[in-house]
């Protein structure tokens, strides 16, 4: 579907998560994953991280793990578990924001863009696997930052790590906004910013956990909750809203394409998962087919939900689509469940941010008796900053788009193609150079244009007091 490659030796298995930089099941993300992306806890072949398992490359471009496992020690995944891991990694907050994006860009342009994004995302996933296998004889590569190190030295590693860092921090902000918006819809007595203030102490307390093992099951629950929301939207849409004549809907609005770019990129980001996924494959010769199947499945889900969400609610489609649902016991239960599981998975999203910050600021203080207090203080500051951003920009749709445009686009489109071209330029065919060069240019231009657009839209929305 997107390409093929020869099987090489599998390297050590790293963390199996939506963002492998995390080393834990991710709900970004992205959703970034992706999105508020999730991977079922049982699919993860490695234990949840603890205080002594550094998982992100340091700003200096150092190794991500303190020790490398040998190939014979690598837990292996079968084809079906691998397919489920990839597919569920996509499903999250990016999915729930898609109807909002389609409402702005139009029905048919939205459909075309989703197909294009799926094809480009699938292709760059294959590029990363191909890159890992080409490097496997000499280098045990499991992370994008390590590929960046080989391609451009410390600068490449730093850029890749920074993109992952900003993506995870953005996921945390998106979590906070999403939870606060839903709580406000349940109890409107308190404004969204007040809800952010009330959930912040809970986030701080959870950030102090030294092991995330206890929270791993919430990743599976988050997938279930998101899919229940999808089912409720379809049930409510067909029962209460219906579908009007297609001519009454917006067909295409190119001026809103930058907004859709960011939201779509946010939804198709699982690229930091694919390297450890391939390394853990029990049958690496079918990894390509597994990726194709996962991307195809997600494209069907995204297309159906994005288009029908817009068909149901039209121009009134909200960024947090749960806010379009009528008040009922079921909807209330679903909203509460979403808020609970996303609150519990917040520290999972925050973990890589914490690792980088503590390595940068506290690495020389580990032997001090007050080290644990300093850790807690730093984590509290991180959460407060994230909550401050959520209060300053309480716009889930636009913030998700900005994150997708600025940092996620780098992980999905720009860096995989850039590193691949740099490492293997001499042996690539002309067609490979043209194709991957085009994706790089399109990704870079789209990222810049979408970022500028989103910043302007956010500024206008905040100035006018407009909500989503």
UniProtKB/TrEMBL annotation:
Segments of skewed composition (Polar residues): 38-51
Entry keyword set: Membrane, Transmembrane, Transmembrane helix
Domain of life of the source: Eukaryota
GO molecular function: L-amino acid transmembrane transporter activity
Membrane spanning residue stretches: 80-101, 107-129, 159-178, 190-209, 221-238, 258-277, 289-313, 333-356, 377-396, 402-421, 433-453
Protein name, entry field: Amino Acid/Auxin Permease family
Lineage: Eukaryota, Apusozoa, Apusomonadida, Apusomonadidae, Thecamonas
Domain Amino acid transporter transmembrane, residue spans: 78-451
Main location: membrane
A Pfam family recorded for this sequence: Aa_trans
Gene Ontology CC, one term: vacuolar membrane
Membrane topology, from the record: Multi-pass membrane protein
Gene source species: Thecamonas trahens ATCC 50062
InterPro entries attached to this UniProt entry: AA_transpt_TM
Compartments (UniProt record): Membrane
Record keyword Acetylation present: no
Positions of the UniProt region annotated as Disordered: 38-61
């Amino acid at each position: 579907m997107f390409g093929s490659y020869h099987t090489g030796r599998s390297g050590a298995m790293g963390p199996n998560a939506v963002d492998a930089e995390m080393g834990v099941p991710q709900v970004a993300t992205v959703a970034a994953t992706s999105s508020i992306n999730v991977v079922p806890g049982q699919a993860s072949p490695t234990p949840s991280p603890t205080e002594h398992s550094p998982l992100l490359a340091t700003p200096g471009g150092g190794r991500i793990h303190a020790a490398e496992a040998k190939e014979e020690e690598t837990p292996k995944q079968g084809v079906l578990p691998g397919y489920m891991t990839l597919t569920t990694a996509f499903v999250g907050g990016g999915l729930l924001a898609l109807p909002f994006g389609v409402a702005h860009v139009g029905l048919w342009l939205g459909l075309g863009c989703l197909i294009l994004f799926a094809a480009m995302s699938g292709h760059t996933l294959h590029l990363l696997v191909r890159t890992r296998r080409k490097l496997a004889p000499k280098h045990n590569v499991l992370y994008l930052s390590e590929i960046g190190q080989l391609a451009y030295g410390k600068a490449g590693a730093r850029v890749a790590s920074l993109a992952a860092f900003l993506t995870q921090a953005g996921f945390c902000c998106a979590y906070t906004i999403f939870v606060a918006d839903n709580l406000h819809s349940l109890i409107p007595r308190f404004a969204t910013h007040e809800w952010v203030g009330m959930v912040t102490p809970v986030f701080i307390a959870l950030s102090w956990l030294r092991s995330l093992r206890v929270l791993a099951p919430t990743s599976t629950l988050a997938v279930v909750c998101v899919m229940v929301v999808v089912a409720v939207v379809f049930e409510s849409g067909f029962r209460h809203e219906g579908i009007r004549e297609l001519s009454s809907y917006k067909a295409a609005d190119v001026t809103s394409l930058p907004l859709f770019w960011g939201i779509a990129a946010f939804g198709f980001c699982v690229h930091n998962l694919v390297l450890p996924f391939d390394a853990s494959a029990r049958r690496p010769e079918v990894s390509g087919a597994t990726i194709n199947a996962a991307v195809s499945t997600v494209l069907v889900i995204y297309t159906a939900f994005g288009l029908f969400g817009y068909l149901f609610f039209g121009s009134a489609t909200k960024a947090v689509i749960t806010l379009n649902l009528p008040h009922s016991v079921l909807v209330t239960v679903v909203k509460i469940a979403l808020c609970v599981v996303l609150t519990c998975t917040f520290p999972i999203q925050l973990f890589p941010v914490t690792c980088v910050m503590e390595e940068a600021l506290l690495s020389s203080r580990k032997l001090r008796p007050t080290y644990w207090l300093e850790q807690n203080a730093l984590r509290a500051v991180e959460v407060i900053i994230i909550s401050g951003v959520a209060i300053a920009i309480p716009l889930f749709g636009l913030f998700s788009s900005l994150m997708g445009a600025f940092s996620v686009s780098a992980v999905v489109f720009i860096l995989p193609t850039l590193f691949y071209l740099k490492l293997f330029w001499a042996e690539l065919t002309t067609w490979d150079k043209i194709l991957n060069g085009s994706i790089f240019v399109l990704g870079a231009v789209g990222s810049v244009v979408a970022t500028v657009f989103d910043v302007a839209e956010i500024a206008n929305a905040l100035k006018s007091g407009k909500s989503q």
